[in-house]
UniProtKB/TrEMBL annotation, chain A:
<comment type="similarity">
    <text>Belongs to the activator 1 small subunits family.</text>
</comment>
<dbReference type="GO" id="GO:0003677">
    <property type="term" value="F:DNA binding"/>
</dbReference>
<comment type="subunit">
    <text>Subunit of the RFC complex, an heteropentameric complex consisting of a large subunit RFC1 and four small subunits RFC2, RFC3, RFC4 and RFC5; the RFC complex interacts with PCNA. Forms an heterotetrameric complex with RFC2, RFC4 and RFC5; this complex has ATPase activity but is not stimulated by PCNA. The heterotetramer of subunits RFC2, RFC3, RFC4 and RFC5 interacts with RAD17. Interacts with CNTD1; this interaction facilitates crossover formation.</text>
</comment>
<dbReference type="GO" id="GO:0003689">
    <property type="term" value="F:DNA clamp loader activity"/>
</dbReference>
<keyword id="KW-0235">DNA replication</keyword>
<dbReference type="Pfam" id="PF22534">
    <property type="entry name" value="RFC_C"/>
</dbReference>
<comment type="function">
    <text>Subunit of the replication factor C (RFC) complex which acts during elongation of primed DNA templates by DNA polymerases delta and epsilon, and is necessary for ATP-dependent loading of proliferating cell nuclear antigen (PCNA) onto primed DNA.</text>
</comment>
<dbReference type="InterPro" id="IPR050238">
    <property type="entry name" value="DNA_Rep/Repair_Clamp_Loader"/>
</dbReference>
<dbReference type="GO" id="GO:0006271">
    <property type="term" value="P:DNA strand elongation involved in DNA replication"/>
</dbReference>
Automatic annotation (TrEMBL), chain B:
<keyword id="KW-0227">DNA damage</keyword>
<feature type="region of interest" description="Disordered">
    <location>
        <begin position="569"/>
        <end position="588"/>
    </location>
</feature>
<dbReference type="InterPro" id="IPR027417">
    <property type="entry name" value="P-loop_NTPase"/>
</dbReference>
<feature type="compositionally biased region" description="Polar residues">
    <location>
        <begin position="309"/>
        <end position="322"/>
    </location>
</feature>
<comment type="similarity">
    <text>Belongs to the rad17/RAD24 family.</text>
</comment>
<dbReference type="GO" id="GO:0006281">
    <property type="term" value="P:DNA repair"/>
</dbReference>
<dbReference type="GO" id="GO:0005634">
    <property type="term" value="C:nucleus"/>
</dbReference>
<feature type="region of interest" description="Disordered">
    <location>
        <begin position="289"/>
        <end position="322"/>
    </location>
</feature>
<keyword id="KW-0539">Nucleus</keyword>
C-alpha cells in the first residue's frame, strides 16, 4: 500500500486521463522505434514524469518497472568526490544532477558518457539506445547545459535524453532546439474532478461533487496535490462531507502569515524576523520562486493601484536577480525591504494627509 | 665557554644558551666591549653590536606584555602539565607574530625551573649523519617523531641540574607535516600514548578559511589545550618601548613623538617595535655625529643585523619575521609618519574588525564628506575570502540599521553585488567590483548612527545549509525515489506526511486553523491510545515499500558525501573569534555569539523525525 498518488498512477499511454491527443502522438512516435531527445515541460503536478514513464514502458515493455537505486562516485577536476544517486532499470537511468550543486556539469558529462559508451551487444528484441532522464533540468547551471549540448550530439547513436523541466525559460536555446519539446499542461478543473472521482471509485468511496470541486480549486491545477488533498480529507473524515475543510499545506499558511507580518510592521527588526522565516521555508525545500510568488500575491492585496505597479516592478526586478545571482535569500530580502520602504512611505503619506 | 655552549645547544638547550648570552651581555655592559660581529664604520659604537631583542627581553612576568588572563591560563597549564603523570599534556599557543608567545613561555618556564627543549627543522643533510650509516636518510617526519620520543625519555648529558623538569617547544614543523597535517596528527596520537613530557606548540594565527594543522576535532581528541594570544595593545607596546629606553643608557632616547609613530606603525608587534626603536636610536646617533651617508649604511647594517640575529633563534626568535623592515605599503592613517623610514607593516584586519568598519562607518575627522577608513582597504583584504565577509555583513546589518530606507538601500547594494559575484566567467574583474559596491554601499547608506553593543554572529547561513541538507536527507529517507524530485516532494509529499508534527516549521503559530488540518497527527497520537487505522498506510510510506531495491550502503554513502561537502563551510565557521583588546574603536563592540541554540534546535528536529 502506498500513497494514492503512486498507487493510481497510470502506467500506459492509453490509460492517461487527459491530453489524450498528445498521448496518442507520443505512442505513434515511439512505435516507430526511435525518437529524438525530448524536453518535457509543464507546471509541477501536471504529470510529466507519469507521461515519461508510460512512454518508456511503451518503448521497452514492463522491464522498465524493475528499478534499482545506484550510487555513482564522480571525481571533479578539483579532486572533489561527488556521490550521486540514480534510479535505473536495464533500459534507462534517471538522475537529478542539480543534486550536485554547481558540480553538475561533471555529473552530466561523466554519467552520460558511462551510459552511452556501452553499446547494446544484441540489438534484436531490444532498442539500440538507452534513455537518460534528467530531472529538474531547469535547475542546471549554464555550464552544465552547455556541456549537455555537446554530449547530446556526440552520443546520439547510443543514448536518448529526456529532460524534465518546469519551465523552458531557463533552458538555453541551444538545448531547446536540439530537443522535441513536449508541453504537458496542467489539467483543468473538470479533468481533476474526474480523476478524483475515479480514484474514489477504485477505492470504493463516494465523493460529493462539491468537495471534489473545492479540492480541485484548492490544488490550483496540481493533480498530485489534488490527490494528496483527497487522501488527507479521507484520513480526516469519512464519509466525506460536502462542506469539509480542505487543508492547504502548512508552508503555504506559513508563507501567508509571513506576508501578513510584513504588512503589519516595517522596520529592520521586523525584516530580521522575516528573514529567519524565509530561511525556514527554504530549509524545507520550498523553491525561492514559489516563495516570491506567494509573498507577492499576498502583499499586493494590501496595495492600491499605484502602489501595486511599484511593488510588482520591484518584484520582477528581484525575481530576475534571483536567477542571475547565487543566493536567493538576499534578493528575497531585498524585495521585502523594498516593499517595506515603499509601503511605509505610503502609509506615512496617507496619515499625513488625514491631518 | 660561551662559544661551546652555543655550538652544542643550538638545537635544544635553548634556555641555557639564553642564560649564557644574558650573562655575556651583562658582563659586557659595564665594560662596553661587545663582541664585534662585523667590521664596519661602527666599531666605536659598541651598543650597536648588541641585540636589543635579546638584551631587553623581559625577565619577569611583570615585564611581559601578554594580557593577565592569558598569562594566568598559561601559568596554570604549566602547573597542571608538570604535575600530570602518565599521558603527556599538550598546549597550542596561537597569536600573531611578535606578541611574545615564546617570550612569555620562556619567562614562565625559567621561573618554574623547567627546561625548554626546542625542535628545529634541519635544513641540510647532516654530513656526520651520512657518514655514520648508509641508510640514515631519515625522513623529516621521522626525525621529528624521533626527536619527540627521545627528548621525552633521555636527559641530556650536558644537563647540569638534576630533577629539572622538561618541556618541549615546537615552533616550526617539517614541511612534510605542514603539507599533510594528518601525518602530524598520527605522530601526535602516538606521542599522546607514549610520551611523558608536555609539549607546547607555538603557531602564528591560523589563517582564515583554512582548517590548519590543528583542526578542532583533533584538539578535542587529544585534549590539547589552546590559548590564543591577542594583538598587543598600543599602550603596552609604548610601555615596553619606554622601559627599553629607560634601561638603555647607551644612546639618546628618541622623542615621544617618534615613539608614538613607531607604536602606530607596528600594529601590536613588539618585536618589530623594538627593532624599529633600535633603528631610530641609531639614526639619532648618526645625525648628531654627522656621519656621511647615514641612511644607506644604517639600513644596510640594520639588515645585516637582522640576518645575524635570525639563525640563532634568540629569545624572541626572529626567524619568522623577515618582513620587519620591508616597507610593503603605507597605510593612509600613517601618512604623517613619513619621516619614519623603515615603517610599514601591512596589516590584515581580522574579519570582525572589517565587518565593524562596514557596519559602523566613521566619518573622517577633517572632512565630514569622507570616510575615515578607505573602503578599498577592506576590499583589498577581503578578496581571498569574499564570501565570509559577505555573509557576516548580511547577517548582522539589520541589527545595526535603524531606518527602513537605509536598510532597503543597503540590501539593494548587496543584491547588486551578489549578482556581480555570480558572474564567474570574469571573476577576476567582477569580484573586486562586487566587493567594492557592497563596502561602499554599506558604508555610505547609513544616515543615522546609533551605536550600541551588538553581538556579531557568523553562522546563520551555514546552519541554514546544514539544515537544508538534513531535510533533504529526510526526503530520501521516506522514499529513495524522491531524490529525483526533491522539489516536488518537499512541496507536496512532505507536508502531507508530516502535517501535524508542527515543529516542522520553526515558531509555527498554533492556531485553530492548523489544528484542524492536522488529521494525521490525530492518527499518530491515536497510535498510543490504540485506535489507529491509518497507521499501516503511513508506515508503508515511510518504509518505502516500493519496487526499488535499496542497496544497503545507501544512506551511509549519502551521508558521507554531505559530510564532505560540509567540510569547507565548517572550516569557515569553525573558529570562534573574539576581539578582546583592540584600540578603542567601534570594533570593540563586537564579539562572537555562540549559536549553539541553533544546533540544539536542529537536533530536536532530527529527534522528532526519528521518533516518528
Amino acid at each position: 500500500m502506498s500513497l494514492w498518488v503512486d498507487k493510481y498512477r497510470p502506467n500506459s499511454l492509453t490509460k492517461l486521463d487527459y491530453h489524450k491527443a498528445q498521448a496518442l502522438h507520443l505512442k505513434n512516435m515511439v512505435q516507430q522505434g526511435d525518437f529524438p531527445h525530448l524536453l518535457v515541460y509543464g507546471p509541477s503536478g501536471a504529470g510529466k514524469k507519469t507521461r515519461i514513464f508510460c512512454l518508456l514502458r511503451e518503448l521497452y515493455g514492463p522491464g522498465v518497472e524493475r528499478l534499482r537505486l545506484e550510487h555513482m562516485n564522480i571525481q571533479t577536476p578539483s579532486n572533489k568526490k561527488i556521490d550521486i544517486t540514480t534510479v535505473s532499470s536495464n533500459y534507462h537511468l534517471e538522475v537529478n544532477p542539480s543534486d550536485a550543486g554547481f558540480h553538475d556539469r561533471v555529473v552530466i558529462q561523466e554519467l552520460i558518457k558511462t551510459v552511452a559508451q556501452t553499446h547494446q551487444l544484441d540489438p534484436s528484441g531490444q532498442r539500440e539506445f538507452k534513455v537518460v532522464v534528467i530531472c529538474e533540468a531547469d535547475c542546471l547551471t549554464k555550464d552544465a547545459q552547455h556541456a549537455l549540448r555537446r554530449t547530446m550530439e556526440k552520443y546520439v547513436a547510443t543514448c536518448r535524453i529526456i529532460l524534465v523541466a518546469n519551465t523552458i525559460s531557463r533552458v538555453i536555446p541551444a538545448i531547446r532546439s536540439r530537443c522535441l519539446g513536449v508541453r504537458v499542461g496542467a489539467p483543468n478543473k473538470e479533468e481533476i474532478i474526474n480523476i478524483l472521482q475515479s480514484v474514489c471509485r477504485k477505492e470504493g468511496l463516494s465523493l460529493p461533487n462539491e468537495l471534489a470541486e473545492r479540492i480541485a480549486v484548492q490544488s490550483n491545477g496540481n493533480l498530485r496535490r489534488a490527490i494528496l488533498f483527497l487522501e488527507t480529507c479521507k484520513v480526516q473524515q469519512y464519509p466525506f462531507q460536502p462542506d469539509q475543510k480542505v487543508a492547504s499545506h502548512d508552508w503555504e499558511i506559513y508563507l501567508k502569515d509571513t506576508a501578513k507580518m510584513i504588512v503589519l510592521e516595517q522596520s529592520p527588526q521586523k525584516l530580521l524576523q522575516i528573514r529567519s522565516r524565509l530561511y525556514e521555508l527554504m530549509i524545507h525545500g520550498i523553491p525561492s520562486e514559489i516563495i516570491f510568488k506567494g509573498l507577492l500575491q499576498e502583499l499586493v492585496k494590501n496595495c492600491d493601484m499605484q502602489l501595486k505597479t511599484q511593488i510588482v516592478e520591484k518584484a520582477a526586478f528581484f525575481e530576475h536577480r534571483i536567477h542571475l545571482g547565487s543566493k536567493p535569500i538576499i534578493h528575497l530580502e531585498a524585495f521585502v525591504a523594498s516593499f517595506m520602504a515603499i509601503y511605509k512611505k505610503f502609509m506615512e503619506a496617507t496619515v499625513a494627509d488625514l491631518f | 665557554m660561551a662559544c661551546k655552549s652555543s655550538w652544542i645547544s643550538t638545537c635544544f638547550d635553548k634556555n641555557e644558551s639564553n642564560k649564557m648570552s644574558d650573562i655575556d651581555s651583562q658582563r659586557k655592559l659595564p665594560h662596553r666591549d661587545g663582541v664585534q660581529r662585523f667590521n664596519g664604520s661602527f666599531t666605536k659604537e659598541k651598543v650597536m653590536t648588541k641585540d636589543w631583542l635579546k638584551e631587553f627581553a623581559p625577565k619577569t612576568p611583570s615585564d611581559l606584555l601578554v594580557s593577565k588572563p592569558k598569562l594566568d591560563q598559561l601559568n596554570s597549564w604549566l602547573q597542571k602539565a608538570s604535575k600530570t603523570v602518565g599521558e603527556a599534556s599538550m598546549l597550542l599557543i596561537t597569536g600573531p607574530p611578535g606578541v611574545g608567545k615564546s617570550t612569555a613561555l620562556e619567562v614562565l618556564t625559567a621561573m618554574k625551573n623547567i627546561q625548554l627543549v626546542e625542535w628545529e627543522s634541519s635544513v641540510d643533510i647532516d654530513n656526520s649523519e651520512l657518514a655514520g650509516s648508509r641508510n640514515s636518510t631519515q625522513s623529516q617526519a621521522g626525525k621529528f617523531e624521533a626527536f619527540l620520543m627521545n627528548s621525552g625519555r633521555y636527559i641530556s648529558v650536558l644537563e647540569i641540574r638534576e630533577g629539572m623538569k622538561k618541556l618541549i617547544l615546537v615552533r616550526e614543523f617539517p614541511n612534510i607535516l605542514i603539507l599533510h597535517p594528518n601525518l602530524l596528527q598520527d605522530i601526535l596520537r602516538r606521542y599522546h600514548v607514549m610520551g611523558r613530557i608536555p609539549i607546547v606548540f607555538s603557531l602564528p594565527e591560523q589563517t582564515e578559511g583554512s582548517g590548519g594543522m590543528f583542526p578542532k576535532q583533533f584538539l578535542e581528541e587529544l585534549n590539547i589545550h589552546q590559548i590564543s594570544f591577542n594583538k598587543v595593545s598600543d599602550k603596552s607596546v609604548m610601555k615596553a618601548l619606554k622601559r627599553i629606553c629607560m634601561l638603555n643608557t647607551g644612546c639618546d632616547v628618541p622623542s615621544a613623538e617618534v615613539l608614538e609613530k613607531i607604536v602606530g606603525s607596528v600594529h601590536g608587534d613588539i618585536r618589530s617595535a623594538v627593532l624599529q626603536l633600535y633603528y631610530e636610536c641609531m639614526q639619532n646617533k648618526s645625525r648628531t655625529r654627522e656621519q656621511h651617508s647615514a641612511l644607506s649604511t644604517e639600513q644596510a647594517s640594520h639588515k645585516k643585523r637582522n640576518h645575524i640575529t635570525k639563525p640563532s633563534t634568540l629569545p624572541v626568535g626572529s626567524s619568522r619575521k623577515n618582513s620587519v623592515n620591508v616597507c610593503k605599503k603605507q597605510l593612509p592613517a600613517n601618512k604623517t609618519s613619513q619621516e619614519l623610514e623603515s615603517v610599514g607593516k601591512d596589516i590584515q584586519l581580522p574579519i570582525f574588525q572589517r565587518v565593524g568598519r562596514l557596519l559602523y562607518p566613521k566619518k573622517s575627522e577633517e572632512d565630514a564628506e569622507f570616510l575615515a577608513h578607505d573602503p578599498e582597504d577592506i576590499v583589498a583584504q577581503t578578496l581571498s575570502h569574499p564570501r565570509k565577509l559577505f555573509h557576516m555583513v548580511l547577517e548582522n546589518y539589520l541589527k545595526v540599521f535603524r531606518d527602513m530606507n537605509d536598510s532597503c538601500r543597503a540590501i539593494r547594494y548587496a543584491s547588486d553585488s551578489d549578482t556581480m559575484m555570480s558572474e564567474f566567467q570574469e571573476r577576476e574583474l567582477t569580484l573586486p567590483m562586487a566587493l567594492s559596491t557592497m563596502t561602499r554601499g554599506f558604508m555610505t547608506c547609513k544616515s543615522l548612527v546609533k551605536r550600541k553593543w551588538t553581538p556579531l554572529t557568523n553562522q546563520e547561513y551555514f546552519t541554514v545549509i546544514q539544515r537544508t541538507r538534513a531535510v533533504r536527507e529526510k526526503i530520501i529517507d521516506i522514499d529513495p525515489r524522491y531524490i529525483l524530485v526533491p522539489r516536488d516532494a518537499a512541496m507536496d509529499i512532505l507536508p502531507i506526511i508530516y502535517t501535524g508534527l508542527s515543529s516542522r516549521l520553526d515558531s509555527y503559530p498554533y492556531t485553530n486553523k492548523i489544528c484542524d488540518i492536522s488529521g494525521i497527527e490525530a492518527e499518530l497520537t491515536g497510535q498510543a491510545e490504540g485506535r489507529s487505522n491509518l497507521q499501516p498506510a503511513l508506515f508503508t510510506v515511510t518504509d518505502s515499500t516500493s519496487e526499488i531495491k535499496v542497496s544497503s550502503r545507501k544512506m551511509l554513502m549519502v551521508g558521507k558525501s554531505w559530510e564532505k561537502n560540509m567540510k569547507d563551510e565548517e572550516r569557515m565557521t569553525g573558529t570562534p573569534y573574539e576581539i578582546q583588546e583592540s584600540e578603542s574603536d567601534d570594533e570593540n563592540k563586537i564579539s562572537e555569539e555562540h549559536v549553539d541554540a541553533w544546533i540544539e534546535d536542529d537536533i530536536d528536529f532530527l529527534d522528532n523525525f526519528h521518533h516518528f
